[in-house]
Amino acid sequence: MVDEPDASDAAEPRPARRTWEDRVTAFGESRAPVAAWFVLVAAGLAALVCAMVPVGPHWLGGAGSVVVVAAYSWALAARTGGRPVVFGTLAVAIGVAALLVDEDALRTGAAVTTAAVAAVLGVMATVPAVTYWRAARECVLAVAIAAVGALATLGFEPTITVTRFEYATFGLSMIGAFAVVYRLGAGLHGLGRRGVVIVVVGGVLLTATLLYAELLRRYGTPELVSTLLDAVGWSRRELGAFPRPIVSVLGVPALAYGCHMRARRRQGWWICAFGAAATSAVANSLANPAIERSESVLSVVYGLVVGLVIGFVVIRLDLLLTGETRGSRGRRSRAAEQASALRPEPARGKALL
């Protein structure tokens, strides 16, 4: 009588052969692409700094700009669920063509695109922030990303009219940010009543900061205009710069408050979209030849600091209006609120869509 084979003697099934798609997915989940991206950005930044000193061949600035805009385009496409290879390659092709043809229009167009990509990436690279200090960290990160984009924008050596250049980069950045947020925030119906109020307030502040000079000229009293001009002049003389209102009043506070709200509600993305006002201003901050670079850097730093202070006030008011109390009970309530702020969202290196 033939014994039946024991189950333990049966050969173990061979593991399924990994497909090409599985290998690509596994590669995308590893740290190698992220490390390679940081190396590319660091190399491009080093080339841009050498071109500013200047040290090395004359083509370093343009090469650094192409590397940075390609890496940023790749990252933005990956973060927003697009095709990184396609957009990264397209960015390289456009940048190289602009440098080789050496036409003012192409160089300026490449510079505008670089600033807009850096501004939108600065907003999209943020993650939800449970506490204010984490929100401040996200603002610093967004500004740093946009600052590297500012160097890359300068590397293309654009021929610009400053006002047109600033409005072009601002407009493209805001359109790009809101186009992505429209999908992340589940469309307009995902706003809710509170979201609508916040977006309306943000729109009013945006309009006011864009038109504040004209509004002062038309409706401000001579004494008020003189006082404000004196304050700006004193800040530039004594502190070295004056923060840009669109950064300190709208962009940075909106980004800090938006990251804070994203940990709790999806509507926070709509507030973060207004953060592109700050990152676009940072990305084009070096384009004005009439302002020294040291003053531009100080203006960004001051705008970030003032914006974070305003953002802190806004976040505290929001927590107060939604049930935050004072004293030890308030601290316990705040700790409980932070512990419950666990709205899931993909990590910084993952696709949002």
Describe the structure.
This protein has 353 residues and is mainly alpha-helical. The chain has one domain (22-340). Helix content is 73%, strand content 0%. It contains 15 helices and no strands. It has helices at residues 20-29, 32-52, 60-79, 84-101, 104-124, 132-155, 162-184, 192-210, 212-219, 222-238, 245-262, 268-273, 276-283, 293-321, 327-340. Helix 5 packs parallel to helix 7, helix 6 packs parallel to helix 13 (276-283) and helix 11 crosses helix 13. Mean pLDDT is 82; it is low at 1-28.
Quick overview:
Helices cover 73% and strands 0% of the residues. The protein has 353 residues and is mostly helical.
Beta-strand share of residues: under 5%
From the spread of the alpha carbons, the general shape counts as globular
What ranges have pLDDT less than 50 throughout 5 or more consecutive residues? 1-28
| Radius of gyration, whole Å | 24 Å
The topology string of helices and strands comes to HHHHHHHHHHHHHHH
- End-to-end separation in angstroms reads 63 Å
Class based on secondary structure composition and strand pairing:
mainly alpha
Number of helices: 15
Provide the domain count.
1
